[in-house]
């Protein structure tokens, strides 16, 4: 691992402890380097507390972690779409919160351009957590832990919405995965099986155009030929831009930890990797915005499809599932 400093504050009696941002070897420089939000141990812990706090939701039952579960690599585990407050059902699948500091924009349609801003919609969305920041602050302002920690991190007795957003960004932006079998293979520590190697070469020729190494996403928005769900009627990025050329385009997700982060696609319609691969083989629907890289379909044999799935499994860094740094605070 390589590191850069995430904070220039000097530790002291009244100052929070600087925390270094992790940049794995071979990764590019992150987009978000906490210049406006100095990364500290206390800020990270404050963000973790908020991430798991049910009081951030209107029914006091649905924290951020209810949709972004550690067991699912901080995505929604084995559900198509997430469940929100008061038995609501969200319209999209909650993607894993991995390597967010390298993201250029956030959410399936790119509604938000910064890690700090993106938490606004989940907290205030009527189908997600259904709260307002003012009500959240009223619920937590008399909590002694929060009084102490917000003052420690942000140097003020007042809790503001931006403080909540920045603390959450410190926690979620610090979740970094880069120690899978693939990473060990690239470092020369392990070898791939013959099938994994075959799958890797197939991936490089057929999939890397949208999912380039080492982050396994180019963060672009593409129409991969998924038919529109007649109930959800979700047309993707056009909702944000209003441009017809963005119809049916959704953000390309990272494939890191894809083996343990089902369900898949923006609405979670696929439960298995085999279904995803078969979509690219035979399920792509053509339209005026279908991406040329997938329009012709993926011409591979059943044996090659298995090899490809086995390679994708090598992208699993299961340590995230058990690392107590990411677990609910005790």
In short:
With 330 residues, the protein is mainly alpha-helical. It is built from eleven helices and four strands; from the N terminus they run ββαααααααβαβααα.
Give a structural overview.
α1 (41-51) packs across α5 (161-172), α7 crosses α11 (302-313) and α9 packs across α11. The chain starts with a strand and ends in a 17-residue tail after the last helix. It contains eleven helices and four strands, in the order ββαααααααβαβααα. The protein folds into two domains: 2-177, Cytochrome c-like domain (Cytochrome Bc1 Complex, Chain D, domain 2, Orthogonal Bundle); 181-318, Cytochrome Bc1 Complex, Chain D, domain 2 (Orthogonal Bundle), CATH 1.10.760. The longest helix is centred in the middle third of the chain and has 13 residues, at 194-206. Strands 1-2 form a two-stranded antiparallel ribbon. The chain has a two-stranded antiparallel sheet with strand order 3-4. With 330 residues, the protein is mainly alpha-helical. The protein is globular.
């Amino acid at each position: 691992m390589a590191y850069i400093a995430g904070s220039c504050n000097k530790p002291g009696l009244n100052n929070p402890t600087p925390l270094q941002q992790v940049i794995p070897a071979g990764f590019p420089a992150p987009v978000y380097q906490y210049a406006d939000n100095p990364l500290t141990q206390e800020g990270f812990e404050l963000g973790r507390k908020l991430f798991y706090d049910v009081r951030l939701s209107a029914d006091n039952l649905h924290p951020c972690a209810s949709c972004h579960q550690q067991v699912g690599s901080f995505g929604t585990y084995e559900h198509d779409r997430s469940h929100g407050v008061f038995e609501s059902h969200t319209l999209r699948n909650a993607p894993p919160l991995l390597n967010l500091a390298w993201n250029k924009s956030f959410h399936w349609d790119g509604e938000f351009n910064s890690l700090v801003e993106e938490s606004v919609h989940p907290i205030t969305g009527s189908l997600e957590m259904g709260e307002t920041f003012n009500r959240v602050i009223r619920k937590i302002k008399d909590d002694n832990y929060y009084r102490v920690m917000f003052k420690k991190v942000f140097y003020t007795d007042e809790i503001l919405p931006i403080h909540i957003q920045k603390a959450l960004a410190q926690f979620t932006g610090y979740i970094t995965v880069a120690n899978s079998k693939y990473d060990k293979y690239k470092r020369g520590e392990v070898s791939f099986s013959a099938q994994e190697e075959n799958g890797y070469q197939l991936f490089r020729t057929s999939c890397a155009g949208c999912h380039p190494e080492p982050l396994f996403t180019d963060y672009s928005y593409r129409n991969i030929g998924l038919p529109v769900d007649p109930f959800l009627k979700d047309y993707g990025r056009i909702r944000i831009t209003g441009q017809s050329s963005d119809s049916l385009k959704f953000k390309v997700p990272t494939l890191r930890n894809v083996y343990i982060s089902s369900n898949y696609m923006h609405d979670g319609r696929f439960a298995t990797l085999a279904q995803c691969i078969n979509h690219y083989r035979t399920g792509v629907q053509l339209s005026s915005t279908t991406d040329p890289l997938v329009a012709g379909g993926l011409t591979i044999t059943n044996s090659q499809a298995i090899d490809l799935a086995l390679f994708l499994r090598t992208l699993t860094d299961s340590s995230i599932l058990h690392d107590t740094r990411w677990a609910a605070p005790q």
